[in-house]
């Protein structure tokens, strides 16, 4: 696990607060947020519950991303990306990131993650690779729609958000799969 923060090279943005009933800052994901799809024992690929408040004035929508910068890919691994969450929304229920996005508010949509599935893909660090960090981020945006197609990558979403991000609320979870 490296100590670098993947957001330090992005334009500065105000901070606001994100909390969760299923994720504790700096703690390990529960089995619900590990990846059964990738064969992690007990993994269920259930997206975490998230609540946020204190976004900057002018926020017109939100995006949520979950990113593992420690994945052995050279580019990390995007586990979840949700775009166009209305500014009137302040939480997502646990499991909102299922195959259908059943818990997402009207207008919001999931982009394909790095496994190319438009859903939450739980943590699955390679056995013996050491601990990984998972940055769960709520991005406050100055546009009602970020304007990316539903089949865009999370990296493209990040690029589109770079000039529209007013604030970021960050929660970090961890996972490790012993050898």
Explain how this protein is built:
- This protein is globular.
- It starts with 13 loop residues before the first strand and ends with a strand.
- It has 1 helix and 9 strands.
- It has one helix at 154-161, and strands spanning 14-15, 17-19, 50-53, 61-68, 77-86, 91-92, 109-110, 132-141, 165-175.
- The protein has 179 residues and is mainly beta.
- 40% of the residues are buried.
- Strand 4 (61-68) and strand 5 form a beta hairpin.
For this entry, give a set of tags.
1 helix, 179 residues, mainly beta, three-stranded antiparallel β-sheet
Considering DSSP H and I runs of 4 or more, what fraction of the residues is helical?
under 10%
Strand segment tally: 9
Strand order of the largest sheet: 1-9-8-4-5-7
Strand content: 25-35%
Q: Termini, distance in Å?
A: 15 Å
| Shape, per Cα inertia axes | globular
The residue ranges in which pLDDT falls below 50 over 5 or more consecutive positions are: none
What is the CA-based Rg, rounded? 15 Å
Number of separate helices: 1
Instruction: Report the structural category.
Output: mainly beta
Taking the sheet with the most strands, its summary is:
6 strands, mixed
Short recap of the structure:
This protein is mainly beta and 179 residues long.
Which helices and strands appear, and what pairs or packs with what?
Layout: E1 14-15, E2 17-19, E3 50-53, E4 61-68, E5 77-86, E6 91-92, E7 109-110, E8 132-141, H1 154-161, E9 165-175
Parallel strand pairs: 1-9
Antiparallel strand pairs: 2-3, 3-6, 4-5, 4-8, 5-7, 8-9
């Amino acid at each position: 696990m490296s100590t670098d923060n993947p957001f330090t090279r992005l334009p500065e943005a105000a901070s606001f607060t994100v909390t969760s009933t299923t994720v504790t800052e700096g703690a390990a994901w529960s089995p619900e947020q590990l990846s059964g799809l990738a064969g992690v024992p007990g993994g269920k690929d259930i997206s975490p519950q998230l609540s946020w408040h204190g976004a900057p004035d002018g926020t017109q929508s939100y995006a949520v991303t979950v990113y593992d910068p420690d994945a052995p890919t050279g580019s990390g691994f995007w586990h979840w990306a949700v775009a166009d969450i209305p500014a009137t929304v302040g939480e997502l229920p646990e499991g909102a990131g299922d195959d259908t996005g059943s818990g997402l508010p009207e207008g919001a949509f999931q982009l394909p993650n790095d496994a190319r599935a438009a859903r939450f893909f739980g943590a699955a660090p390679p056995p013996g690779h050491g601990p990984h960090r998972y940055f769960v981020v709520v991005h406050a945006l100055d546009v009602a729609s970020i304007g990316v197609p539903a089949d865009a990558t999370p990296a493209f979403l990040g690029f589109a958000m770079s000039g529209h991000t007013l604030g970021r609320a960050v929660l970090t979870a961890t996972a490790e799969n012993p050898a």
